């Protein structure tokens, strides 16, 4: 036809692509306006050298009642390129060979809504030790390998299809074990002063014990030796017995 325009050569290939995009949008990933956070500081022990405690994502996945809910743990460098649909790495390969792994698989029943008053609803990440080297458990909730930082998010899967996810958390920094050589200089001086004071007190206590022992020995020797002259048995003094002669008045004739 003289007035018809030529069809674009890529028109036929774009139609299936648009249909695929529409299908993906219809079943797209739900982005939840929720950011995982550490538990309340009132609980204490929120972070250790290998664990941290999160608040449970209560009332966040109500639209996905049949989904499995996972926790994704990643180093910050792996967040941008993390693929929800790809097979995640194993805990045993984290972080050297895998920048992220999934763990703490559960269902919506574990996160009931609403939260009961006074109920403690937390998750401790890194609390399992029995599966650290078990390759058959790639989703092991094992101790984290270093101080981090780490970032986490919750991901809901129906089968292998991701259906909902939360935002990534802020970087979570764990505690660092202090080595003896890393103690401050003031602490070293304080320790040296305590050692010197302890040594002096020990020496003084030993001198006091020696003095008491010497006094005890001196007292015992004085009691056994020199005391015999003071408390010696008195000599026996014999006193002759005299009979009293009665003087009788003699008669005058005998005189």
UniProtKB/TrEMBL annotation:
Keywords: Membrane, Signal, Transmembrane, Transmembrane helix. InterPro entries: Uroplakin-3. Residues 1-28 form the signal peptide. GO terms for cellular component: membrane. The chain crosses the membrane at residues 192-219. It comes from the Eukaryota. This is UPK3L protein. It comes from Bucorvus abyssinicus.
